[in-house]
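Q: Can I see a sequence and its folded structure?
A: Here is a first one.
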Amino acid sequence: MPPGTDDMAIAEQKDDLHSPRATVLADCLSSLAVIRKASLAGEGADAGVRMRWLKRLHTLKGATGFIGAARLTRVLHRLESFLAGPGKFDADAFAVTMDEIMLILDGMNLEAEDLGEPAVYRFGSCLWWANELVQKTADREGKRLFMLVQGGDLFVPSRAYEALKVALPHLAVNAVVHGIEAPDVRKAAGKPETGLITISAEACSDGLQVRFADNGGGIPDEIVARVFQDGFTTQNVPTELAGRGVGLSEARDAVEAAGGRIVLETSAGLGASFTLDFRK
């Protein structure tokens, strides 16, 4: 058994007040209702507005994939294409697809019960998706990796929690798809064939720091300054997980909206780390 395996169980903790499925579906329902209303009001004519919608939909698509809502994930992926395509925005087709999604959500018997919002959460409760997402993505990419979570019992303020549950899945997908190398590449470089992702939280006297790190190939110097830009991607064909160029941008936006900042450090051949800093 690899060292730290016990820590991986932290990622499977469920929040006492909100099951993952209910939380994701409620988030979908509220976010899509806002986007639908704005679309009907003609706000989709603004390219900046469409980019904000695209980033939000990309996050929702990932979350629905985590809970196994395959049909919803597929339609969200199709909805993204209306916003990411090179042609003119088709407001009518976008609205029709939005209605299709709302019908799917209605059919999932989502309960709108108000469970209340706790003031703080355990860090581990915002990582319920981690084991399944990382493993499925690694399997799809033909990669091997081990994940270590540290600080799962640490209490996190609700504002930081909301940012983390958006940002960390994007960082995880980015690490598996773009960071961790294939086993044969790692072996040729003299590295263990199994890569490592570490997610850790640390309480500071003036706030909270969360570090997401991988021991992959690192990020090339020539693109470091661009990784948080809207629409920037190194992948030619988008998939349901990556390739839209909005994941890291959405991660940054979520952290900054919560009053934090995200700092990237990278070393060629050794990996990359993102520090999500919520200190005052």
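Q: Show me another, different protein.
A: A second, unrelated one:
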Amino acid sequence: MKVSAPSLILFFVASILSIIFRLNGQEMIELYLRSTIIPSLFIYYLVSNNYKISVFRAIILFALFIRDVLVVLKMPESPLGSFVCVLFVYILLLYIAFQDFESFKFDKNDLISVFISIVGISTICYSVLNLKLENLELDFSLYVFFGIILSLLSVFSVLNYIKNSSDVFFNALLMCVCFVVSDIFFVVSKFYFYTEAFALISLITQFLSYFFMVNYFLEKNKEVGELNNY
């Protein structure tokens, strides 16, 4: 068994148990289990990468951990705090995706792919925000800004994969797909029409997005051959 295997097993066990306890209505146990998910992935990344991690990536994982802690605490400030944490992570990931994007050269043959990606993702974002959302916890403009950042991150991830279909950008693409699906079902189930199925889909894809994000970082390290600044 690899040294990093126990932490990865812990991640999957915690994720599965969180879902099971959610189905059984034991939300408190579910919430406490969720607070172990990011630490287990942090250890997995650290061990897999020879105990090296850039400050940039450490901040991303720490922000996601704070988000999960705020969810567990259920304070009045938790909605704003968790929103800011996730938005901050998306902005940092957008910066990484843009750095990758700048390293590629696009020609006229790529215009159709670029156009379809932008229009498709923008349409999804607009459709969700155009729903008659009720009991919003924050100002609507914040959700619009959040949607724009996530859309840009998704567009760059799709375009990066189109130009280089390596494991690095495949994981980045899966990460963004999970981000989008998780956030869409979160918004729909919380502010439009609640069903347990939507909430579970949001939770499952959230856990998967963490997994693919860490794999994206690890695969990127393998491709670069050394730890870069981000």
